[in-house]
């Protein structure tokens, strides 16, 4: 089985060994990426959440032979008006980054963009709404799929409305709503727009979440970790769907860092071991849980999710509808 983790926040300080502003251990990005590849996570898409992190993720993608997104997370949109030179200068710099990559194609998506009304302390609703249309239109301009954030029922309504207003449709490059936590009805509305649905630990907390996962068509499903966030915990309804043969790798506190071991409180694409596989990844764990929820073989779920991500983010690697890898 091969896996694509469509959401990895590699720029988070935890991967540099920093927690709550304190250095607890050395940075271990090299180790984390190696563990993921050993686990069958052959692709990772690094999430750009601002101009700076989009630039940083593009550099990491080049360094580690991965891919990335470029955009501005809704909770980061307040930085656009504060940027030296203002909104025009910000978008000019973002466009310059995307345009400079058109040949190397490390940037495979416009994102993370969307709306988040749960954390308005970071960016007011008005600010998010002001900049969303222009961010969405980058997808049309550069023919790149959207990597979307949709958090809060009212935000969902506004996101759908604005996407329709800017003309999102079949002639665009498509998109995925990642870390989906909405209702079945909201999910179906996104499907009707031609979008994919990304599932991680945060998508599997409640019984309502479980019902959504059951209802996602297999040809619209994607898997992710949103590392270092969104781990599956014992308090999640999904925990009971964890296969008995999968055992969480021993993890230690950040200040007691040990080579080769995981870190407590930090999710990463490779974070689970199995008596059948030398190293399963967290995204592999998500695949097992989703498969058990749906009553389908994990190989079927894994293959579908991998093919879906190929069609959306790596269309050059598809021939006659099949992944050429």
From TrEMBL:
CDD domains: TatD_DNAse (cd01310)
Keywords: Hydrolase, Metal-binding, Nuclease
Sequence positions that bind a divalent metal cation 1: 112, 226
A molecular function GO annotation: metal ion binding
InterPro entries for this protein: DNase_TatD-rel_CS, Metal_Hydrolase, TatD-like, TatD-type_Hydrolase
One Gene Ontology CC term in the entry: cytosol
Positions contributing to a divalent metal cation 2 binding: 149, 178
Family statement: Belongs to the metallo-dependent hydrolases superfamily. TatD-type hydrolase family.
Name recorded for this polypeptide: Putative cytoplasm protein
Naturally occurring in which organism (per UniProt): Cutaneotrichosporon oleaginosum
Organism placement in taxonomy: Eukaryota, Fungi, Dikarya, Basidiomycota, Agaricomycotina
